[in-house]
Amino acid sequence: MSTHTLAVLAENKPGVLSHIAGLFSRRAFNISSLAVGPTQDERVSRFTIVVDGASTPVDQVCKQLEKLVRVLKVVELSDGAAVERELALIKVRVDPAVRGQLLEVAGVFGASVVDMSPTTLVLEAVSSPAKLDALLAMLDSYGTCELVRTGRIALARGAGVITDDGPALTAVPEPADTAA
Amino acid sequence: MQELTGAQALVRSLEQQGVEVVFGLPGGTILPTYDPLLSSSLRHVLVRHEQGAGHAAEGYAWATGRPGVCMATSGPGATNLVTALSDAYMDSVPMVAITGQVGTSLIGSDAFQEADITGITLPITKHSELVTDVARIPAAIAEAFHVATTGRPGPVLIDVPKDVQQATGPWSWPPVMDLPGYQVPGPPSLTAISAAAALLVRARRPVLYVGGGVIKSDAHADLLRLAELCQAPVTTTLMARGAFPDAHPLALGMPGMHGTYPAVAALQEADLVVALGARFDDRVTGRLADFAPRATIVHADIDPAEVGKNRAADVAIIGDLRLTMAALADAVAAALPDGPDGRQPLAGTADWLAVLDSWKRQFPLRYTQDSDGPLKPQYVTERLSALTGGEAIIVAGVGQHQMHAAQHYSFTRPRSWINSGGAGTMGFAVPAAMGAQVGRPGELVVAIDGDGCFQMTAQELATCAIEKIPIKVLIFNNGFLGMVRQWQELFYDERYSSVELGTAIPDYVKLAEAYGCVGLRCERPDEVDTVLDKALARTDVPVVVDFRTHDREGVFPMVPAGRANDEIVLGPEFSADEQRAATRREMEI
User: Fold this and answer.
1) What is the DSSP secondary-structure string of B493-560?
2) What SS3 string covers B443-481?
3) A11 touches chain B (CB under 8 A)
């Protein structure tokens, strides 16, 4: 699947989420994942939207998103040039006999144990989507009984930043400018 | 600073925006606003159904180029506007709808006449806002008009809870608009303009594919100049009828499913298609993969999302069409070689135009009006066109009558053709004609309507009669949902399922009279001119004419839905040999 990750800055106002979600359903675009939260500027929310390029015309998605009055900016984060993370909480059924093995697997993937009962444990994993998928595949053989996973969030690597004005990526201001 | 109630601020904001008329119908939650409306400079036209208010606002906007305004109460009042908002969204009509909403403390409680109208209309408005702070009212209204009228126009809905209308807040004008995410494209790129001009100068078989954007940006004069300069033929879509005079030698008429043969075939054979404010709609392209297969595409539009949406563009020009076309004409003029007289540029399209002329002669719009037989809608339209010199403002509903009107009325100027293009809203004509007549009071406004359409919104005749809005309504009464019948005839083995309305009920003459209008009937071809003269002469009251038209007349040519435009069917007026000649074109240019 060729996924495309979009960073969307929007005004932090009521109804913006339904505008964006509504656009996807109205235009029959497929969302693979969506995550939204505030930014350092309280007037601005940032959406990270992952779309499947095979079933959805990504260029159209960007143009249609840009037409929404409350959307400030849409930037496609190119593959490999962005840090992408998802968080998952996984409850695994675990026989005391294999608990050691399981903890070893968790360790390899950098997942931590955040809860434990005589028959289950809850792992918390934060990683790239691919690595997370690999962890989940491993855990399947032990018995995943509950899984909750966030949408992807992503940030461009390097010194460029996405702001709500100007071109797609702008250089980070010099410290002196920040002070001013 | 002056303090006003939200209702007063709302009405005063409309005045400040230059609004002269509001179409609406009051109810519980919009009552506070109707009070200051009474003592304002605004004319309020009291409709009989809110859908009528919405379409009237659209008709007003189509006819004048200024935003139409409609107003309704919460709940069903607001939901009755939905069809008109959807229609305005599809056809990019600038319109501002103002709705009352239940008090803020009641929102979400399933209160009486509560409906989440901003939620309901989210996919069919360019923008909307539920105003929860009285101080926001002037800015919300100013933003609504700005968004509705700039860039690609469209409908904006402003929903105001009753308590916000009643609260008091500071008034100042102009307000500061807060639209950080709204951008209107700037002037077109000169690089793109010169690329397009170079293609136009080189093209052997160019076609200017003109859409509604040309009318919306008032670019018709630039279109005429560009077409004449390039000697390029022009096809005007259903949204663009009137953007180019139909009597002009370069005019091909309408493209698409019921387009003229020359227009449809010219696009198929073109080596260059210049789309101007058009959106490659499925009704124009037929099966998309087979549309204009040999053409390089130049696509000029103010909405970047339209470019490349359906058909990839070789040259994209984003920006206001008037600027685009003026710049394009200048660039073409500069690039063309000088003609024999040293001044007149000479375009190399003579052979192409000769082919198109031969197509116009061979494959015209054809119908037969028997002298004693039932009326043909085409004949009535052509007589209307002749008697009005193509100068009337024609408003149509949706269906066969709409297509016959678009095909057979010879348009001479922009903003003289008003219809429901994208949404295909039956019942559009009567209220839209009402709005158009209010916007252009001195002019002749004629609704051409079907009997099915007419019955959906006929109640606005009462509004027209009482408000002295003297529209003319010509009903092409064939007793059927004619277009649906035509599809059942062609694609469902003549199995006619639920399409017969009957011609006699209602009695349209009596119905007109009951509504305070003049009612006339016409059944014979030799009466058409007399009846039309009589109808057009009345400028004091609305007139309804019941034209009893042929119940089996179809609309042709026709490209069946989902088929390629090359499979165009000329219809029963053409022989098998003619159809064969039309389908097997040979081009040597």
Assistant:
1) TT---S-B--SSSS-HHHHHHHTTSEEEEE-SGGGHHHHHHHHHH--SS-EEEEEEB-TT----SB--
2) CCEEEEEEHHHHHHHCCHHHHHHHCCCCCEEEEEECCEC
3) yes
What domain range includes position B146?
A: 3-170
In a domain, A156, yes or no: no
* Residue of chain A whose alpha carbon sits nearest to that of B309: A60
- As for how many domains chain B has, the answer is 3
Taking only the tens of pLDDT, chain B with its 589 residues reads 899 999 999 999 999 999 999 999 999 999 999 999 999 999 999 999 999 999 999 999 999 999 999 999 999 999 999 999 999 999 999 999 999 999 999 999 999 999 999 999 999 999 999 999 999 999 999 999 999 999 999 999 999 999 999 999 999 999 999 999 999 998 999 999 999 999 999 999 999 999 999 999 999 999 999 999 999 999 999 999 999 999 999 999 999 999 999 999 999 999 999 999 999 999 999 999 999 999 999 999 999 999 999 999 999 999 999 999 999 999 999 988 776 655 556 678 999 999 999 999 999 999 999 999 899 999 999 999 999 999 999 999 999 999 999 999 999 999 999 999 999 999 999 999 999 999 999 999 999 999 999 999 999 999 999 999 999 999 999 999 999 999 999 999 999 999 999 999 999 999 999 999 999 999 999 999 999 999 999 999 999 999 999 999 999 999 999 999 999 999 999 999 999 999 988 777 7
**Looking at beta carbons, which residues of chain B come within 8 Å of A19?**
122
Identify whether B555 is part of a domain: no
Amino acid identity at B173: W
Same domain, A18 and A42: yes
Residue A165 lies in a domain: no
Antiparallel, parallel or unpaired: β B155-161 and B127-130: parallel
Residues of B in contact with A59 (CB under 8 A): 308
Containing structural domain, residue A47: 3-77
Question: Which of B123, B126, B304 lies closest to A22 in CB terms?
Answer: B123
B24 and B164 part of one domain: yes
Last residue of a domain, one of A77, A92, A116: A77
DSSP state at residue B81:
T
Supply B521's token pair. Answer: 């009937």
**Is the CB of A157 inside 8 Å of chain B's CB atoms?**
no
Give yes or no: residues A121 and A101 share one domain. Answer: yes
Taking CA–CA distances from A15, the nearest residue in chain B reads B119
> Do B249 and B351 fall into the same domain?
yes
Residue of B17, B245, B55, B271 lying closest to B145 (CA atoms): B17
Spell out which residues of chain A touch residue B118, defining contact as CB-CB under 8 Å.
Answer: 15
Q: Which residue of A has its CA nearest to B127?
A: A69
